[in-house]
Amino acid sequence: MATEQNNISDAIGVIAQSADTVFILLGAIMVLAMHAGFAFLEVGTVRHKNQVNALVKILTDFAFSAIAYFVIGYQIAYGSHFFVSAETLGADNGYQLVKFFFLLTFAAAIPAIVSGGIAERGSFRPFLFASAMIVAFVYPLFEGIIWNGNYGFQTWLENQFGAQFHDFAGSVVVHAMGGWLALVAIYLLGARRGRKPGIAFAPSNIPFLALGSWVLIVGWFGFNVMSAQTLDGISGLVAVNSLMAMVGGTVVALVVGKNDPGFIHNGPLAGLVAVCAGSDLMHPVGAFVVGGVAGGLFVWVYTKLQRSNKIDDVLGVWPLHGLCGVWGGIAAGIFGQQALGGLGGVSIRSQLVGSVAGVVVALVGGLIVYGIVNKVASLRLSQEDEFIGADLAVHKIGSTNSDK
């Protein structure tokens, strides 16, 4: 009888482990699909002469990020590596391998975010190398500090303020890091030639821009919900909070952006960026407010940037990911409080300190990596290559062909 019960227990354990593996695998696939969203959002925003380059950058950045994270980054963040036998790696239905795949898709979002900011004048190969360095060293340093408790930072926050820094799905760890890293690169590059403050280059293809936005929106439910990483941790609260933040961002961007389609399709993304950190804590009404503030913040700051001589952020990745990501980290400490309908267990002071720490790591890491790469090989296209466009200059082909 005891043997039979043990067999049943073992079978249940295998099924549970298999279910967790499938669950996180589906999340990895959904976030992988988001990279198509990054690609088409950029394709629809840049001018025709840079559309091929936008597509190529996202795919090649992902490939180089995968190598960098597999060989170096994952070990820095979590202290484990994959240079063991396949038999060892395949234990527990290969759950640890699939977890790596899922977290890789987050890490690779960093270069995808940067890509939108440096579009149309960033040099292809130097930025490809810089992206690998960011994913190998800079991003996993902060990822490990927050999500794996490295270096005692989270313990210190808990001792000082009563709670650790809470970032359930990466408002700061992923999005703010990507946005502030992008700001460094954008500043070093300077503005596109021919760009006049207050006169923006019009998006080349609104349908592609909208397609990119929709792919990101759908994939984001894998980004947020599957951040639980196990089936027993799944929460409908995360899903509905993500939904309400997306809606809030859309509505406010519609109103504040005065029906502009670019703002309308970036508004939901701003809301989703902001809700990542506290999506497992907030009340849906709080999530709606958080998303709405993010949508308004994006429109306001991006509009201001159009008048800047130095900060030429093509897709607005610094306000979208950098600022809205920081807002999301802070908002988790506000709307996660029980007094505002949240589940509690968060400290506004910890959220402030943790968010600032993410910005500091991104700025310092970005200055080091982009500064060194720029010394070795210029981060900027030559004047001639920028004039003819990266498609012909780098890839020797345009995005469309009208030959008959």
Describe the structure.
The chain is an all-alpha fold and 404 residues long. Helix content is 72%, strand content 0%. Helix 6 packs antiparallel against helix 14. The chain is globular, with a radius of gyration of 21 Å. The model has no long low-confidence stretch (mean pLDDT 95). This is Transporter. Pfam families: Ammonium_transp.
Please count the beta strands (DSSP E, at least 2 residues each). 0
List the secondary-structure elements in sequence, H or E. HHHHHHHHHHHHHHHH
Tell me the distance between the termini: 78 Å
Helices, by number, come to 16
| Strand-pairing-aware structural class | mainly alpha
* Content of β-strand: under 5%
Largest sheet: none
- Percent helix: over 70%
**Unreliable stretches covering 5 or more consecutive residues:** none
Question: Which overall shape is indicated by the principal axes computed on the Cα atoms?
Answer: globular
Tell me the Rg in angstroms.
21 Å
Average pLDDT figure:
95
Transmembrane segments: 22-43, 55-77, 97-115, 127-148, 168-189, 201-222, 234-256, 287-305, 317-340, 352-373
Membrane topology: Multi-pass membrane protein
Domain Ammonium transporter AmtB-like: 22-396
Subcellular location: Membrane
